[in-house]
Amino acid sequence: MATYTLVANPGGASRKYGLYDGLTCVLSVHFEQVGEAIVFRYTQNGVTERVHTHLKTLRECGQQLLELLKNLQLVKSDADIERIAVRVVAPSTFFQHDREMTAATVQKLSELEAKAPLHIHTSLHEIITLRKHFPDTTIVGISDSAFHAARPEIARRYAIAPKDADRLDIQRFGYHGLSVESAITVLKDHNHQPHRLLVCHLGSGDSVTAVRDGKSVDTTMGYSPLEGLMMATRSGSIDPTAVSALRHGLGLSDSQLQTYLNKSAGLQGVSGSSSDLRQLLHLESLGDDRASLAINLYIYRIQQAIGQMAAAMGGVDTLVFTGTVGERNPQIRRRILSKLLFLGLAADPKLNHKVTDPTELVDISPSFHPAAVFVIPANEAAVMVRHARNLKG
After folding, report:
1. Active site residue 254
2. What pLDDT, in 10s, does the model give residues 53-79?
3. In this model, does residue 194 exceed pLDDT 60?
4. Which of 98, 144, 218, 317 is catalytic?
5. Which of 193, 85, 214, 74 lies closest to 142, judged by CA?
6. pTM of the predicted model over 0.90
7. How far apart are CA 125 and CA 132, in angstroms?
């Protein structure tokens, strides 16, 4: 009987896949748009190859993926894959649990698309495409908010009438749960299980999560992944009255407003030039005031959130940086930590500077410091595999 699990983690400009035999990754594949072309790289047995394709859109990756698996003699047909795990980001109590993606479940997800269009649209198309090319394989949706489901009620509620919130299923669901679980797993593997942990996930989306004894206490993302920190192209938290003023002042429809706040704000919107922190840091060094404003606002919001999440736990013992930016950008880590010494958080300058693309946990804490600071590469796929294998029905 087949034991392979295929993990799919679709993004707006990429598609990431991992093929697992049990809990062991035997192949990782990353499709991305490069100019007008779609290329992919795959890693097998520690060797990485880069391949150009004739694909027109990322939605066509499913067929190319199946052909690659056959060409590498990993599978003979789609039936050799027992299950496919797809990350699901959706504001819904129903999707705070992992679900088999039956026709009825896919319909439920499609009904939520307008509430988190940036993430649900991509996930839906990925599920539909994979179903086409893997018709006999069970597809499971792995909830990115399940980790936060057991938080205290005060961390989940908005200050609106509970009867309205419950009837309309409105609460602070929280996201990046798979990334946080990944960090906790790595810490446990290194015999480090802090009582009060902060996980700072910085990538295209950003969040800070408070974890006490391995359980979520609170997190900055709320009803949708738009709430919370300023992000690459997302505004983060903003006064609803200001949102209304934006809508009317710019003459935007509801859909256009969602697009504006999700794709034209954040680092991109404030700087007016880029959502890439590497580019913005370069522009800042050349004297670009808007790039500098964008970076400083970004860092300020993260510092505020770390203080907020530390207060939710009554302090902090360990801080973890993860996600693409958190793992690879020493300058951003240094600037974030520059005002957090009151929490016992700091980094050794030399250790921090060396960490630009870690493959395992790295301790960047100064010696004899009250709180530890680690950099941990995110491995959401490994968490998704465990969830998929544990899902019953």
Report:
1. no
2. 888 888 788 888 888 999 999 988 888
3. yes
4. 144
5. 85
6. yes
7. 11
